[in-house]
Amino acid sequence: MKQALEAIRAAALAHITAAQGEAELEALRVRYLGKKGELTAILKQMGTLAAEERPVVGALANTVREALEAAVRARAAALASESTARRLAAETIDVTLPGAAPALGGMHPTDRVQADLEEIFMGMGFEVVTGPEVEYDQYNFTLLNMPESHPSRDTQDTFYITDTILLRTQTSPVQIRTMLANKPPIRIICPGRVYRSDPADATHSPVFTQIEGLAVDKGITFSDLKGTLDKFFKQLYGSSIQTRFRPHHFAYTEPSAEMDLSCFKCGGKGCPMCKWEGWIEMLGCGMVHPKVLENCGIDPAVYSGFAFGMGLDRITLMRYNIDDIRLLFENDLRFLKQFV
Ligand code: DAH
After folding, report:
1. CB 141 within 8 A of CB 150
2. What per-residue confidence (pLDDT) applies to 28?
3. Which of 118, 214, 226, 250 could make a disulfide contact with 256, Cβ separation 3.0–4.6 Å?
């Protein structure tokens, strides 16, 4: 029986110290020390021993029990600290690793140009005003001195929602809305999308972007118009830039003009950017037609004003050397990502 006890002690100690987890250790504890365990089974046979042997075997059995219990406790402690160490290692945060940068969007190139132009005009005292893209015929044409069947309408054919509601062809209706709602002095710029039923190609798009300006006050003259635009383009392209004005016709301004800019690429010598002309056609402008002022309840005998309008997309294409206006409206990420 002593031998059996020693055999149990040896086998159990070997198993216990090699136990690989809490569950396995508990199974070993039950197997050796449990009520139906191997040690208990041996002790149950104590009755078969001679009287003088019982205390000896009993003492040995106790020693074995204590040894196994101690081994179980030691192994349990070792397993617990191993698992804590493993968890700590797994959960370690390396604060020196580079962070995962969130994907950032970027400004659309046209919006960037628009923001630059707005900043210059705001510096000159202009306020940025916007209006609806779906507009009344009245504001887009009639009050701008282009009554129904006026030939000027032909050059600005657009998309009609109803007979009297359309997609605006210019941001000039914002000028009308502003003059109807406010007394002079007025100094505004109106950026925004406009529409015309032009087929799309590299230089035309049925949707494009304009920025218009309007100043109305007592004593505004054509010199103010020239000075404002000249100063604006010098701020945009540098002080060596020159402007020139050519007579033109718009129904809503009188006199009207088109303004050219000396080529900012070649300085006027001639290059592909200006098609070898030295000048780049930039915008339409003029003195607000007295009829238009009157239509908006402003007395042309007291007040005068100037207005101008230019395409933002052309400026954007030139700035970034883009050769197709459609790229600005297709929202192809491969294109837009170049501007992030
Ligand atoms: N609407 C004109 C165009 O689209 C540009 C323009 C000319 C706007 C004269 C104006 C203006 O406000 O007064 O070509």
Report:
1. yes
2. 83
3. 250
